[in-house]
Amino acid sequence: MARKATTSRPTLAMIAKECGVSNATVSRVLRGDHAHGFSVRPEVRDRIMQTVAKLNYRPDLTARSLRAQQTHVIAVLGLNHQWKSSSDVNNAAIGAAVDVLHELGYSVCTSFPKPTADGSSEGQLPPWRVDGYLLVGIQTHKSLVEVEASGIPYVGINTRVGTKGYACQVDDALGIKKVLDYLQEMGHQRIAYRNGSADRARPDSHAVQDRHVAFVNEITSRQLPLLDHHESMVMDDKEFLNQALAAKATAILSYDLTESIRLMQAAYQMSVNIPGDISLIGFNDEYPAALLTPPLTVMGVPARSMGRQAAVMLVDLLQGRKVDERIRVFEEQLITRQSVARV
Amino acid sequence: MARKATTSRPTLAMIAKECGVSNATVSRVLRGDHAHGFSVRPEVRDRIMQTVAKLNYRPDLTARSLRAQQTHVIAVLGLNHQWKSSSDVNNAAIGAAVDVLHELGYSVCTSFPKPTADGSSEGQLPPWRVDGYLLVGIQTHKSLVEVEASGIPYVGINTRVGTKGYACQVDDALGIKKVLDYLQEMGHQRIAYRNGSADRARPDSHAVQDRHVAFVNEITSRQLPLLDHHESMVMDDKEFLNQALAAKATAILSYDLTESIRLMQAAYQMSVNIPGDISLIGFNDEYPAALLTPPLTVMGVPARSMGRQAAVMLVDLLQGRKVDERIRVFEEQLITRQSVARV
DNA sequence: TTGTAGGCGTTATCAA
DNA sequence: TTGATAACGCCTACAA
What we know:
The structure is a homodimer.
Chain A: H1 12-19, H2 23-31, H3 42-55, H4 61-68, E1 73-77, H5 88-103, E2 107-112, E3 132-135, H6 141-150, E4 154-157, E5 166-170, H7 172-185, E6 191-194, H8 207-221, H9 237-246, E7 251-254, H10 257-269, E8 279-283, E9 297-300, H11 303-318, E10 327-330, E11 333-335
Parallel strand pairs in A: 1-2, 1-3, 3-4, 4-5, 5-10, 6-7, 7-8, 8-9
Antiparallel strand pairs in A: 9-11
Helix pairs in contact in A: 1-2, 1-3, 5-11, 7-8
Chain A binds a DNA duplex through α2 and α4.
């Protein structure tokens, strides 16, 4: 049965005894106690450091965490290790957040959640103790409830959050506006919208609907023609392209990069030239948007800024500082490349 | 500055006081202490369970770990969160290992390593305390040294390990043998080898060289003709294919799936039929090998078995059981599909 | 400049 | 059937 580890780790007390000093002295030397006008005889300090090295002593963080009532560990929730479906946007945001957290003295972990009996592995919190959560990806209602119930501070990066949650989110409606501003500026009036299908499988993602609704609203309020085929997201790409051309659309706005790429492929096969025959603009500035032919003009999420900001918010929360905005909203940025022509 | 969490968690002692019983009783009820002929008055048990639910009490695992001198947490080392380069093989192996570990009462984590000053983020162990490591991917010498120095038991899944390490590894040389057995059985004599280029960037991976050497040895000992272009891994795919055909090769063995796919693309562009004009067999049974045209015959690593076995070995280690084989070797399996024809 | 002592939350041992 | 108590390893107020 589970028993004590064969090689018991060296402890602070061992160091102390070996050096003939008290635990407190060792502890102070090790953490460089600056708070209380700290000082040791250099001779003692050296002896301690030597012994530490000799025994390969590393403080036991379970003990330290217990004592300090905090772990300095942040868990990232919502990553899916099994299907590595994590997008570039997520990766960029997490990378930035992790950098900031490290700088502020926190470490970052993820857990491989234990699947529940009913097959859903949703929203399993890590069993070990952490100080805060960073939420990414698509959060189900169930997992949000679980996170809220934990009482542990959390910040979502482009996710929905519960009543106690903080978040960095992108203003999708504004993104649509900025796209239309740009397209109009380029002389486009007749704009088709290619809806997303990829996210259909994920019932808790409202992005597809939200973006669509925003588009319709915006087109209407600008009194631009609402081309009627934008509903048919089940439609084949070539068929969509044909209908768009038939409706005399001069530009297509596509839901995400996947859709954009598929449209470009369809266009290639149909000998439709982008942007010669029709312009294309999409969401998400991910790989390989810049490498397509032609390089794709997109609205991109400022992923790294959001990640950084989320990390800062979380640490502020943890250290009892006031965070004024519960939801911090970011603007999407237009990345002008060559898939949109002036009409 | 860092201060105590605003909402201090409920503790076992609070439950005890609230219920008018001792800590010990609450603890026993919660863990269902079977060892010592355990029993409680049902009334007391109910009261405790109710209070636990009411206060949303969750035991503090830092305290439990400190007391138990073990965390029941295993860390996976070698995953690269930033570039998500993890292969399907790794994912399958890890998935299987995680299942086993969960079953045996362990949870599994990964850390986002803090990059070191010199830019290399290699081999950073998580700072929190774990009971064991599972190694995957490509382990540098440096990271192995670090792992060994930690004194924490570890098992590698298809990685090299240090002197104290255990591992599940695949017998690559045997894989080559089995491939050649199969090709010879199918009547092939003149076999070209397409070396890998992808792993060039990773200096600590010896797989490319090892497999190549094994191939040459095996061909030689079977007195088959050694076609002379196998060295030129820098060669363009079409050029390689041309040379292979010119050398009257009837089959190509390719280093990995990436190479296989590239060869198939080249063949398609050159109107070379696989397996009509030349057969193709590769390593790694990953997505999308089965979906190519034609479906690719491959030698595949038994990833799930290896993952499961690695988990079992690690837990045996942790629980003080004897593990007889330090390195457990697995055979690659031939997956016969349609890219190899009989000559 | 250094030491003593108490406690973080849990669990196991022993006694009642 | 239950309770008191002593650790686990570390940190820090306080005392010396």
